[in-house]
Amino acid sequence: MKNIVVVGLGYVGLNLALIIEKSLKKHKLDFNISGFDVNKRRVESLKNNHDTYSGASYLDLESSKIKFINSIEEINRKGSNEQINFIICVSTPVYADHYPNLSHLVSASELVGKVLRKEDLVVYESTVYPGATEDICIPILEKTSNLKSKDDFYVGFSPERINPGDSLHQMANVTKLISGQNEKVLEMVYEIYKKIFPENIFKCSSIKVAESSKILENTQRDVNIALINEFSHLTEKLGISIHDVLDAANTKWNFIDVKPGFPGGECIPVDPYYYIELAERNGVTAELAKAARNINDNLFYLINKIHMGMMKVNSNKIALLGLSYKSNVPDMKNSMGIKLFSLLKRDTVHPYDIIAHDPLVDKDILKNDSGIEILELDKINNLGSIILMESDSAYVEYGIDNLINKIEKNGYFYDIPGLFYKQREQIIVAGINYWSF
Ligand SMILES: NC(=O)c1ccc[n+]([C@@H]2O[C@H](COP(=O)([O-])OP(=O)(O)OC[C@H]3O[C@@H](n4cnc5c(N)ncnc54)[C@H](O)[C@@H]3O)[C@@H](O)[C@H]2O)c1
Q: Using the 8-state DSSP alphabet, how is residue 101 labeled?
């Protein structure tokens, strides 16, 4: 337990490293913890106690003794036989064609393999399709280290369930799944993880079961959201609102409470493709998951609504509010708000003046990566319409009156999450058209 190296210091890795440190300090254990990331800029900013998107504060980082490193060689093993526990949390995205991109995982395995010694333990936390840890990662570790897994070193898998922006379900208080190559390895993983997640551990019967559970959980969520999105198209045709239908349906004890919308982030729009790819390779068609992805990734139903509204107004100015991938987080990975902004900006048939606001995203990173400039909310005015993409509490605090005052009479307020659904009468009385799913 003495030495821990977290590999990949993104949203998951940084939060995990901080939790590990906190828990081990609480147990008054003597330990060393390092955090390794190939991204030099990320490591430099963490060394300066600055985190742009994982939610760690200056104080969290300043008071931590995590050694942030940018080169695996900084794990100096010369003259020391001390065992190391590596926890790998690198990103597992998909390519533009939706094929799983395991390149970060492969490279992390190669780097760890270089410094791996006998008795070390490697736990993967990155989301993968079932079989990837044993068929892809372990052979790389064995090849680069010249050691044999199960005999010389050991491998486990523990999927991460962190839910950004959700203060109820955080890393430290949700059930943690763990698995290992065999009973002995499972116990080794358990010995470590029980100190970090003392009351919430579930031992999976194999690595494949743990891997499968993670992609099933997120595919199920994607399918559930897609059903509500699809249903909302029907309710609109019927002249009723999906939000009213959900309020009614939610009174049933086993109804699954899911809101319509466009899921973004590292998990929901990505993990189903890991399932789809492996399913198809095994002759399973995964039709439901594919249909759900198509529904949830399709912004054209909304874009048509925007065109129809904007045809009837004087100003060609649209403000898109909410550019991160979900409410109350600064993370912009796979943000559907950014995708919508780009699609509207590129639309030469409808040359809108489209401007953006978000209360939390890092303005410089957004400008640098997507060319989108964030304006101050107070300076946004004379709009044909507002498109609200997220339920950020900042917009509730700003107030619906202040928001709709920015829109010309008979302009449009597109409320994607239905944040102001209950105030829709007030919005309509003020002379603004209201649209939500
Ligand atoms: N973000 C979430 O909410 C969330 C929740 C549950 C599970 N997950 C899963 O956890 C994993 C990590 O997700 P994340 O959101 O933290 O990703 P992230 O993109 O925020 O961070 C990944 C980090 O890994 C680093 N990295 C890439 N290749 C590396 C290498 N070879 N060696 C060292 N570092 C490397 C990157 O520079 C980056 O800082 C993914 O598999 C994701 O699907 C994420």
A: -
